[in-house]
Description:
CATH topology of the largest domain: TIM Barrel
Largest sheet: 8 strands, parallel, barrel
Number of domains: 3
Amino acid sequence: xxxxxxxxxxxxxxxxxxxxxxxxxxxxxxxxxxxxxxxxxxxxxxxxxxxxxxxxxxxxxxxxxxxxxxxxxxxxxxxxxxxxxxxxxxxxxxxxxxxxxxxxxxxxxxxxxxxxxxxxxxxxxxxxxxxxxxxxxxxxxxxxxxxxxxxxxxxxxxxxxxxxxxxxxxxxxxxxxxxxxxxxxxxxxxxxxxxxxxxxxxxxxxxxxxxxxxxxxxxxxxxxxxxxxxxxxxxxxxxxxxxxxxxxxxxxxxxxxxxxxxxxxxxxxxxxxxxxxxxxxxxxxxxxxxxxxxxxxxxxxxxxxxxxxxxxxxxxxxxxxxxxxxxxxxxxxxxxxxxxxxxxxxxxxxxxxxxxxxxxxxxxxxxxxxxxxxxxxxxxxxxxxxxxxxxxxxxxxxxxxxxxxxxxxxxxxxxxxxxxxxxxxxxxxxxxxxxxxxxxxxxxxxxxxxxxxxxxxxxxxxxxxxxxxxxxxxxxxxxxxxxxxxxxxxxxxxxxxxxxxxxxxxxxxxxxxxxxxxxxxxxxxxxxxxxxxxxxxxxxxxxxxxxxxxxxxxxxxxxxxxxxx
Length: 565
């Protein structure tokens, strides 16, 4: 009598969340705009086998950008991701993989909810995404109704959402006409065909929704649609051949090029859109200026394998991310950092190691939250510009090697930030930085190492492309390597990687024992980079923040709810 037979442990949090049709999202009674991204579970070197330490690194990068919400597109997340979101302050749209009412599909939805409903980070249950065969007919509405009813029985505290693409207003009408009212409507992009059968994307679609369905909360559940390549400001080449969009990849959906002089390219300027996409500036303004739009989830936070539009082979990685596959920020990242954070931001691009003739006119862009910015080239002012809301600043600058300096001012004219970009000398040495590390549940330590090449003055060389070999000495193994290059076919677990626009990444795992691990990076004609990491033996395995354990007397076994130890 009185003997404990089983123990179920689950971390939880207390908070309130609601979505209002007029005023958007409220967290603990306070208005909050969801500044979100959609993410696939994919990372350089490891693919979908993302360990908690790697996800923590990815979330830290997103947090620094000002992101406060994650959509688990388009599948249930790894349990540790929700543990991290609980701890780091992200809200989560938690998405089931398949929309339908078969026992299998409803069983998957039930397993998702019962596994994850104690996580305070979860604010929405997503019932599906872009099911174009059913979302515009009665069958789809009835399926979603059954899924929402099940969700409400399992968790009456959180609303449901379904993310509709194409003409989402027509889909919302289909729901209403078939007696279905989704808790919160998810609008993917703002696409519609015009009278000529061409796809258009306009913010007025949100206003039309508000007019037709005034009592239904609305979220831009997938938005953006611009593509960019980190560190690329002109024509892209693969093995010496110019890379061009491929008809098979494009199909009937021709890209939109915002700048004709860079048509056919996907550069870091992010001027190449899907026909249903919006520029990064328009995407945020569409949401920020409408209180009834509770938030936006950008496609995507990071690059992922596949969906190489508008390219075909040799491209193997998408370019929709605000960061590349390694988590290195692209220039677009800093637009959102400027809009989503309070700290002064003044980001200039391109770099100033350009391969062009002196005097060539360069599009010099600036993402900032300063009221005004003055730009200087080698001590000569290029003009002082005022920033319009949600817009970038742009100068036409005759290229000349040297120093670019930008000074940002607040509305009162006081200097608040200063940024300098210099033309570097050729790379002379490699540099390894311990970007992030943590202890895994088994006691091992995972370390993310970022690699760059720098000149004698210690400045990173943004055009460096050396092939780098790695040596690991000590009780550690290589997990993977990457560089963010969308056309790289290099081996993911080989101890070598070419720098792509100055950067590469190495991920290692130090085994659960005390000692030192040394990493050496070397390349032809460059001084080697060295890093030493001290590791310690964990006394016991580190439990996941939200891991659940079922215990009998002295036996630990898998929790039948979420499978964690």
